[in-house]
Amino acid sequence: MIKVDLHIHTHYSGDSDTSLEQLTERCQKLGLGAIAVTDHGTAEGALKLSRQNTPFKLIVGEEIESSEGEIIGLFLKKSIPCRLSPEETIRRIREQGGLVCIPHPFDRYRSSAMQSATLERIADQVDIIEVFNARTIQLQNLKLPNEFAGRHHLLAGAGSDAHSLAEIGRAYIVIPDFNSRDEFLQNMTHAKIYGKRPSMAIYCRSTLRRVRKILKRKR
Fold it and tell me: pTM score, two decimals?
């Protein structure tokens, strides 16, 4: 059995400053057996890391902002553009043989979170629902993702949504080891979910990182 964090950001995301080298070192220290790098709007960081000899399995992913909420593509071969419809975003993920995961669904405090009407419409096109996200604020109904996954017979996933080194591994699944996309999908039926909820300090640090990166680009 291995620990898998299915939702991690690097400095390829606008609100993270974690380098690929720092990520590799941290994941090895935490004993993660596999991770998915899911930067906002690009798979380039994940693709670069996939060409390196990492001590863990690397799933190339991307957190894509569709016109109706974010969708994570897993096992991708190239980046997918944002602002497409959910259906078109999913079609492009499938074109690459990828898997469709919905991150932080129903989250009332994230404008990027996919909500009920859209989720019900595309449910039959989804593989995985992120039922635990370590950055989800508790002041809402945290049972909704699990209930939705159960109602639609979808696989349950979890991820730290890490935007800093300290956040990596705060949520993960434990599954049998895998060597392919299909084996991963099969083993997800045995997934056990683990995770810790966030503190407000995490959001403050993310905001500061985003502002620093914006100011740096303007110089």
Answer: 0.90
Whole-number pLDDT of residue 217:
55
Query: What gap in Å lies between CA 76 and CA 1, rounded to an integer?
Result: 24
Q: Hey, how many other C-beta atoms are within 10 angstroms of the C-beta on 205?
A: 17
CA dist., res. 217 & res. 214, Å (int): 5
The burial class, CB within 10 Å (0-12 / 13-18 / 19+), for 204 is: exposed
Distance CA 108, CA 94 (A): 28
Distances, alpha carbon 211 to alpha carbons 119, 144, 160, 181, 206, in Å:
32, 32, 22, 37, 9
The structure tokens listed for 144 are 């909704």
Whole-number pLDDT of residue 197:
81
**Cα separation, 116 vs 58, whole angstroms:** 31
Position 208 scores a pLDDT of: 57
Percent of the chain with pLDDT over 70: 90
The CA distances from residue 45 to 30, 36, 50, 66, in Å, are 21, 11, 9, 20
Distance, in Å, from the CA atom of 211 to the CA atom of 5, rounded to the nearest integer, reads 26
Say yes or no to pLDDT of 218 above 60.
Answer: no
pLDDT band at 181, cuts 50/70/90? very high
Integer angstrom CA distances of residue 184 from 62, 103, 130, 162, 200: 17, 18, 15, 21, 33
Contact between 130 and 6 under an 8 Å Cβ cutoff? The reply is yes
